[in-house]
Specification:
By secondary structure, the chain is of the alpha/beta class. It has 9 helices and 8 strands. Strands 4-3-5-1-2-6 form a 6-stranded mixed beta sheet. It has a two-stranded antiparallel sheet with strand order 7-8. Helix 2 crosses helix 5 and helix 2 packs across helix 6.
């Protein structure tokens, strides 16, 4: 049975009150904090504020009987349609005053198909995880390669060296095939929720600033991958054509015995010519090495006053 609460918070100096529908009565206070952070971070994003700054410190509720605000310490204090207020971390001057009526509604992201569990006080929506996966998958193969992950971290300005990123990649690449699939990336988001959250907002910011260096780097990598795909396709076509040429030549030789005989003679002559030149090069190389050795020996004999050398003067 659904359970509704009114949750209010300060978003950019403005009180925002939302009616939140849970699929059932929340089991913990932290669950309410989780849902509040998700909802109001979205509100922050709509107002062009950094959503990462919204973090719940503690929650209070309004008790109608005493007409006072009290700390929410356990879910047994909850009643349906109760008014809650979320105090944020890092906002010591925040006060509860002039709470507006709920101006919008939201559903708690309770279904397991909609969220990935995140240790601590938050959850990550699967849509966010999917958005990050798509951003990292520059070459559109529905997998993430190490180079793509390195690019994503660099574009997002996360201060990790390539060795650290490689270790994260290896931890996520469960079957060690050099690629992270969507299923493997979901596990990555559970292990490193803060990392995925940061990637989501920072890469989103990159897309909103097309003239930034990070955005230009992204376009460059996309172009690089496109050229690599074209090169791979050209190499594949070349190998196909080379195979067809060999097949056509073989068919032509079988159909014309005289041509086959001439080609065999020509090939024999070419082989001999190559072998002769190869042996000439070996002789020249041996003569050069002998000459260099003789010179070194002569210089050594001069320094040592060798009597053996004197016999050849």
């Amino acid at each position: 049975m659904s359970f509704r609460l009114h949750i209010c918070a300060d978003v950019g100096g403005e009180k925002r009150n939302v009616e939140v529908t849970f699929d059932r009565k929340p089991e913990t206070v932290s669950k309410i904090a989780d849902e509040g952070e998700i909802i109001f971070r979205n509100e922050c994003a709509l107002k062009q504020l950094d959503p990462r700054n919204f973090s719940v410190d503690f929650i209070v509720f309004y008790e109608d009987a005493t007409r006072r605000w009290k700390p929410l310490e356990n879910v047994n204090q909850l009643t349906e349609y109760m008014q809650l207020y979320l105090f944020q971390s890092g906002a010591p001057q925040e006060t509860v005053r002039e709470i507006p009526a709920p101006s919008s509604q939201a559903n708690a992201f309770g279904a397991s198909s909609r969220v990935v569990h995140r240790p601590g006080l938050t959850t990550i929506d699967v849509d966010k995880v999917a958005a990050v996966f798509k951003e990292l998958d520059i070459n559109n193969t529905e997998t993430i390669e190490l180079g793509e992950m390195i690019h994503g971290f660099q574009a997002a300005g996360i201060d990790f060296n390539e060795e650290t990123i490689a270790r994260l990649f290896e931890k996520s690449d469960a079957n060690s095939d050099g690629m992270i699939t969507w299923e493997e990336f979901q596990v990555f988001s559970e292990l490193f929720p803060n990392t995925v959250e940061t990637l989501y907002w920072r890469l989103r910011s990159v897309d909103q600033q097309p003239t930034s260096a990070a955005s230009q780097l992204k376009r460059h990598r996309q172009k690089e991958h496109q050229l690599k795909r074209e090169l791979n396709e050209a190499e594949r076509e070349r190998k196909v054509l080379e195979s067809r040429v060999r097949q056509e030549q073989a068919i032509a030789r079988e159909l014309d015995p005289r041509r086959r005989f001439l080609e065999e003679e020509e090939q024999d002559l070419i082989n001999k010519e190559f072998a002769l030149q190869f042996h000439r090069d070996m002789v020249v190389q041996a003569e050069t090495q002998f000459s260099e050795t003789a010179v070194r020996f002569d210089h050594a004999s001069q320094r040592q006053g060798s009597p053996r050398r004197a016999r050849y003067l």
